[in-house]
Amino acid sequence: MHNNPLFEGLEKDDLARLVHTVYSIDEFRSKMGDDADIIVLSFVVDDKNPAQDLMNFFERGYDFVLDADVSAGEAQNGEYMVFVEMERNESAPENIHKLISDITNLTDTDMAEWEFRYQKSPTKYDCSEENIKRIVPLTARQYRAKFGGDDELDAMREVARVPMQSKSETDKFKESIQIAAGIK
Residue 85 class from Cβ within 10 Å (0-12 exposed, 13-18 middle, 19+ buried)? Predict the structure, then answer.
């Protein structure tokens, strides 16, 4: 007798009422590389086995998915997170839209029910390619311009004595405390 695992594909509605219709983009850090190069999607699933099924669906079904993973433990109330990593590029909105469109067949949902949050913002957006293009930085350059993070470049500028502009406005209160403390 062989103990080979039996791999069955997911069928229509197999994950009905198990996958939450609000997912997040870039809320979590990439484990594969620089966040400026990789988009991380995260989905909430109501149990471990369906979460593993969804992870396998992502990993086996799409060449643009770099990696998919399930959280090591439950988040809350038996829920698990499924993470999907893909390249940050101009094709990302179309690729994300394709993933969600395919998930609707597994979850017995309509595309209109799906929303996303960007990073840790509580604001929800309709899952349209246009919204993804508008909200999510699609190149490493756009990501760094929005969030900084190019410390190596800043260090080179400092050594070369190239003037740098502050990435944020001067905080007058903080500055007055620093002056009072004699550190500025």
Answer: buried
Whether this prediction's pTM lies above 0.85 is answered by: no
Residue 30: CB atoms within 10 A of its CB come to: 19
Q: What is the CATH number of domain 22-146?
A: 3.30.1360
- 87-121 in b/e form (b: 16+ CB < 10 A) is bbeeebbebbbebbeebbebbebeeeebbbbbeee
Segment 146-160, tens digit of pLDDT: 887 655 555 555 556
Q: In the chain, where are the structural domains located?
A: 22-146
Nearest to 132 by CA among 165, 96, 107: 96
Q: Tokens in use for 98?
A: 């394709």
